[in-house]
Amino acid sequence: MKYLTPFFVIFGILGRTYSLDCYVCNGAQYDGEAAETCFTIVTGTTASATCAADAGTKVHYCNAKFTVVDGVTTAVERACAESDDDEDTHSNAVPTADRCITVIDATGNPTAITECFYHCSAPDNCNTENTASLKQCPNNCNRGSCNYITGVCVCDSGWSGTNCSTAVTSTSSGASRKCVQCNSEIDSGCSTSTTSVDCPGNEAYCSTGTSAIFDGSDAVIRTVTTKACTSDFKSVDQCVFNEIHTDSPINDVGYSEFNCFSTCDTNDCNTNTADGVINGNEAVVLQCVVCSDTTGDGSCNTATARQACPSGSTHCKHTAIYHISDRVDLSYTADPGYKLVSVVRECATAAVTRECAEASVGSLSFKKVTCTETCQGDGCNVGWPARPECITCSSRATYYTDSYDQCLENPPMPAACSHPYHSSCVIHESGLEKGTRKSVEGYPRRITRGCSYAGIGNGCTSAQPRDTEIETCNRTCTTDGCNVGSGGLMPVVTLLTFLLPAALGLLTQRYF
Q1: What does the pLDDT look like over 58-92, one tens digit per residue?
Q2: Which of 124, 157, 280, 472 registers the highest number of CB atoms within 10 A of its CB?
Q3: Which class for 202: exposed (0-12), middle (13-18), buried (19 or more C-beta within 10 A)?
């Protein structure tokens, strides 16, 4: 064991050399005033805090949570979040994707309350998303809710289409639907039953219902659970208050009724409890972007419309195939010779390796590249498979002073690059005084963030035209949104790339 101790010490230092800092603030009643700085981060004004140390399964990260009520942003909260005590109640890991969760208030006129969660783990104070990051859906999501991160409607089970207005009306191939069928009045185990049998007719859906009667002092008098087949899709999971029965004497003593119902459209799906909260225990059918472009006409490049997947689907999949020239003598701003062959987005029953595989085409000087990726989450198969989403912006003017630069201080959210061959995100920054991060009077300052085929390397160069060294820095990286910060900052992954081989070399010399 003593031979491994030095390596553990070095790797521990390299793996995390500092605690993570996050912006921490809470704007509970947003009304659009500029002074409410929690909604739009202002460096030096918005509070920042250092997260507690990670321990066991508890990993800390930064998050930003926006509350949207019927399309209107009403609140925001930024914090150090803990992986085992966050909105993802089914996992102790840091969430891998930003997401929105919608709960329907069915009392009177239904109100959609949506909470959108953004997650990040680097660099410090990375939870900078603002209200401009949210995207309104282009149309009314009739039988569904808007995902304000993607700007796409998420349809309730049983509905499809870009505005969730197309109903699924029958089972496939005329086969009988299998549902749990019971009533707790005569079956004491109904609330936990998972035994499904064929429906008596051609009903397309399974349902779970819970009806609770309570008195004027809020004491629950009786609860009845029913599970059945139905031809009427009501909701994924919703509750309403109803007037009590009109028959005497129960209508005279102040009783009320609270009814919850959950509907789904696959076999054996109504094993859940209807509670009015869409929280993951519903058997909601996976929805993926589905389209096929086999001629390379680009019709599927930016597709986002979702469809309900067949029973048994566990992943969304996307595949892009293209031809690309073997040229390597290109600047990072140039595009190689390229031709798109096909793009397919679909549902899948198993995961595939995330990769871009190259194959030579005879003796010609170009390659055929096949990129493929699977993911889990409604509509996640957008963008280019096995390629990063990058921040894209440029200084809108050439600055000669340290004035505000939006691309530097408040860049946009990362997005899919324009072509599938863009394998890297880059930052090119110039015109800074070496070692100070300050502009030099009389010399232009500029920063550009974007996508790249060839990459631009990592590092800085300097020149001294007069009495001040002026620095130009490049950074290349390959993960979603990694081209944040400045061109001169070296992320932890890059740091490990340089230092870990040196550490291993030291161990080899000393112990082997």
Answers
A1: 889 999 999 888 778 888 999 999 888 888 766 67
A2: 157
A3: middle
